[in-house]
Every structure is written in C-alpha cells, then in structure tokens.
Amino acid sequence: MTSDGHDDPRLSEPEHSVMPGEFYCSSEYEILSALLGSCVAICLWDRGRQVGGMNHFVLPRAPQGEACARYGDVAIACLVDRLMRLGARTETTQAKVFGGADVLTFGSQQSIGAANVAMALDYLRDYGISVAARRTGGKRGRLITFHTGTGEVLVRPIPVSHVIQGQIGFPGMK
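and the corresponding structure tokens:
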C-alpha cells in the first residue's frame, strides 16, 4: 500500500523532467519526461531487475576532451554505466529511442536529428542492447513520459505551430 492509500505504486510515482544534457536512473517506480525536437532520448529498462533510466542529448558526438552529457556518445555511456551500477544487465535491458525530428532544416546535409538517431542506434548495437521500440524523425517534436517501474513510454506529438512554419533563417546560413 502506498502512502496515499493506493495499492498500485504507479499511482504515486515521483516525476522528474530530464532536461537536455541530463540523464536519470532509478530502481524505484518513477515517471521521467522529456520534451524532444531534434534531441534524442533513450529509455533503458531492465525487465529482470525492473530498473530504468533516460538520457536526453542534443548533439551526437562530443568534441575531443569534452565529457558532457549534452552529447550522445557521453550521455549513452553515462546512462548504461549508471543502470549497470543499479544491477541491470545488457542481455535483459531493452532500449526505446525517441526524438530526432527534423525541426530545423539547413540545406541538403544530414539533419542534426537524423545524426543523433543514427549515433544512438549504433552505440546501442555496440553495447549489445536491443531496441524494443522507436519513434524518431519526422517534422514534429514529441513529449515522452517513461515509467521506470514498468518500462512503458507514452508519446505525445507536439502540435505544429501555425505561427512558425517552414525554414527558419539564421544570419550566415543559406
């Protein structure tokens, strides 16, 4: 029984917003959320140990000598390491990958979102962690909500604004 009189611990889960450049892991029932555009969030969950975690990264790879979780290569290593410290094992851990939308277009090169997704999938494969679900790409952002006790992820698309549509120009960019 929970402190508020419910039998289901999911009804009183603490909530945490995982901001860009952050990761969070827990062996408790908690709700983690992130608002994603071109950023990517990976939700990892070990079904055997019932531990889960999420990261939220902005760019695929850190510049040499910089170890910041705003970069996917660092964020994934931090997430996997922390989850393994909580008792997770790669063979029973599954990944769910979200985000990587093409919300800003800069010419014909690969979008930041696509590069983030490609890097995430490569790193997960290298770690031997299977991808159970993904909702990536497209032109719209997403709000995701991850339940660390069950591995469930709810995804809500962000409505396209009627005010900001099409390409956004920046000085010096064509």
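(Above: one complete record from the training split.) The longest helix spans residues 112-127.
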